[in-house]
Design brief:
594 residues; alpha/beta; seven-stranded mixed sheet; five-stranded mixed sheet; 48% helix
Length: 594
């Protein structure tokens, strides 16, 4: 009975799976999309996503600008060897400001905080050089709470600020902050373009230099945090749209490793070259190189500079952020971070498409398509970054493809298992009664007959059964009623037989049962239970009720050489039941005893 219930359950599952196949596939697809969206919302793979961004920077096609608008002047070890330990007397800074100004530098930006006074002479000479130049930009540094990045543009997470001396500040052309907050893995990838503090708004130093170089005034800058956008209105030209990430930070468009991105010149060599020219000697550096250039001056000596890992290398002087930002503003060359809603839409589309497609494939084919899809999408995301500077989510769609493959593989395996079970049932079961068909019964009977022939201690019995007056039932009530009786009798036989017994439709209204390990007496008891249950059963068809009886014959294996002989013995016992009035059970031993 239990096997019958399980068999019917498998059949029902198969029918439902076939009937609702499309709905199931859509359910799986949307489930995958929902899983990945939840992971994306909780930033489960944020660190891995950042690593994929680094590889995009490393692998993209970049070329060093042929004629850079930006020049680095490095305060490196060679300059310290000549000038001495830091901090240097500010007369040296005054000198370099004078040299660059005389050689028509476009802007001079220091990445050095001059917040403490030195001495009156040095501070005064430096302040005067700044005043006469009219091109000098000085930095300031906010003390930020790095866990409150998204509120920095509103002044949140700021406890104090380091400003340049007022004597220097009042003569500078402009100020800019040099804050840059590393990501959670410590890598420097972005910088806040604007910080507000106590009613004062400060642009990032490189951004401020770039804005002035383009002639963009403060009133022409619109900060739209809801859209993660900084809009720069150029006089008589196209507006510059500075894209920001979800935290309203600017993704730095790294152009190369330190020393390979822009021209670099030594601080002391600039001064020596100026002195050489004044003395009629050949300079180390042709000072005409600084004409119309933005000169960024910063500490690069080991132990003095602010070193950060960036996507392109593990140690990079933070002064380089200013150059990268200024370059992006001047050339409208920014990194665009695809908004989260578009990334989620991309995840949904990939999840649904891949899941629907893979759910129609076999395991090996699905695996191949999944890996190819991962590779293609990875190439796509890298190409989009390389060609259009657009950062799309890379790892989450790959995870979506993997999850799609995993879920559809399980689904396909289950469906194939159910399908194989269905096909096996079709091949071994009778279509009307769902009992074993005679062909499959013969295979099972053949195997068991060989076993009892080899091991004489084992027992085997057969029951042959035939519904009484079945032709009369068909002729009187019609074949549909006859079919109902056949199916109900089959169910009754399965219920009254033992779990290990094999029940089959022999043909027409005849049935056969193989009782492994049963002797004649046990087989007789089973047969009589079947007979009594059929006799007492009411068969209903439409609004009518019918009754039927069944005759049965029992035989036990007793050394027969051929399975056909055992079947023949059971058939003779059945014939005896029919001949003696039907609705009864007879055994072959009762025939042979006569």
């Amino acid at each position: 009975m239990l096997l019958s219930v399980l068999g019917n359950l498998k059949e029902s599952v198969y029918e439902l799976a076939i009937k609702y196949k499309r709905s199931i596939r859509w359910f799986l697809a949307l489930s995958v999309a929902l899983i990945i969206i939840i992971l994306y919302e909780f930033d489960a793979f944020g660190r891995i996503e950042l690593i994929t961004l680094d590889y995009r920077f490393l692998l993209r096609h970049t070329t060093k600008p042929a004629a850079s608008d930006i020049i680095f002047i490095d305060m490196a070890e060679d300059s310290i060897d000549v000038i001495g330990r830091w901090p240097w007397p500010r007369k040296w800074h005054a000198a370099i400001v004078k040299i660059l100004s005389e050689n028509n530098a476009r802007a001079i930006a220091f990445d050095v905080i001059f917040s403490e006074p030195q001495d009156e002479a040095n501070d005064t000479v430096f302040a005067e050089a700044i005043r006469q130049s009219g091109k000098v930009y000085l930095p300031l540094l906010y003390n930020l709470n790095e866990e409150d990045v998204e509120r920095i543009y509103k002044g949140g997470g700021i406890s104090s600020v380091l400003k340049p001396l007022s004597i220097l500040d009042k003569n500078a052309k402009g100020k800019g902050h040099i804050n840059a907050i590393p990501d959670r893995d410590g890598v420097l990838r972005r910088a806040p373009p604007i910080i507000s503090y106590k009613g004062s708004t400060t642009y990032q130093l490189g951004l401020k230099v770039g804005l002035d170089a383009l002639g963009i005034k403060g009133k022409d800058v619109s900060f739209i945090p809801e859209k993660h956008l900084l809009l720069l209105k150029k006089a008589g030209g196209n507006d510059v749209r500075v894209p920001l990430d979800k935290d309203n930070q600017l993704i730095v468009n790294w152009k190369g490793k330190w020393g390979m991105e822009f021209p670099h010149y030594s601080y002391i060599d600039v001064i020596r070259s100026y002195s050489a020219i004044k003395n009629g000697k050949k300079p180390i550096i042709g000072l005409e190189k600084f004409k119309d250039k933005i000169c960024i001056i910063g500490l690069t000596a080991s132990g003095l500079m602010d070193i950060k890992p960036i996507p392109l290398q593990n140690a990079y002087p933070a002064v380089g952020v200013n150059a990268m930002v200024a370059h992006s503003v001047l050339n409208n060359d920014f990194i665009y971070d695809l908004p989260g809603r578009y990334n989620m839409l991309l995840i949904i589309i990939i999840s649904v498409m891949i899941t629907l497609y893979l759910s129609n494939l076999r395991l090996v084919s699905g695996m191949l398509i999944a890996f190819v899809s991962m590779a293609v999408y990875t190439i796509f995301s890298f190409a989009i970054f390389d060609i259009f500077n657009v950062v799309v989510s890379t790892f989450y769609p790959i995870v979506a493809i993997f999850v799609s493959y995993s879920i559809t593989s399980i689904y396909t395996q289950i469906l194939q298992t159910i399908e194989r079970a269905h096909l096996f049932k079709q091949a071994t079961r009778d279509g009307l009664t769902y009992l074993y068909n005679i062909r499959h019964f013969n295979l099972l009977f053949e195997a068991e007959f060989r076993n009892v022939s080899l091991y004489k201690s084992r027992r085997l019995s057969l029951i042959m059964a035939d519904i009484d007056n079945f032709k009369h039932i068909n002729d009187t009530y019609g074949h549909p009623a006859g079919d109902i009786i056949l199916k109900e009798v089959a169910k009754t036989m399965q219920m009254k037989c033992r779990q290990i017994d094999v029940v089959a439709r022999y043909g027409g209204e005849e049935f056969i049962v193989m009782l492994t390990g049963a002797g004649e007496k046990e087989a007789f008891d089973v047969a009589d239970k079947i007979r009594a249950a059929v006799e007492s059963k009411k068969f209903k068809f439409k609004n009518d009720t019918y009754f039927a009886t069944i005759s049965l014959g029992v035989s036990e294996f007793s050394g027969e050489k051929d399975k056909g002989e055992l079947i023949e013995k059971a058939d003779k016992a059945l014939y005896k039941s029919k001949h003696e009035g039907k609705n009864r059970v007879s055994t072959y031993s009762s025939i042979s005893a006569v």
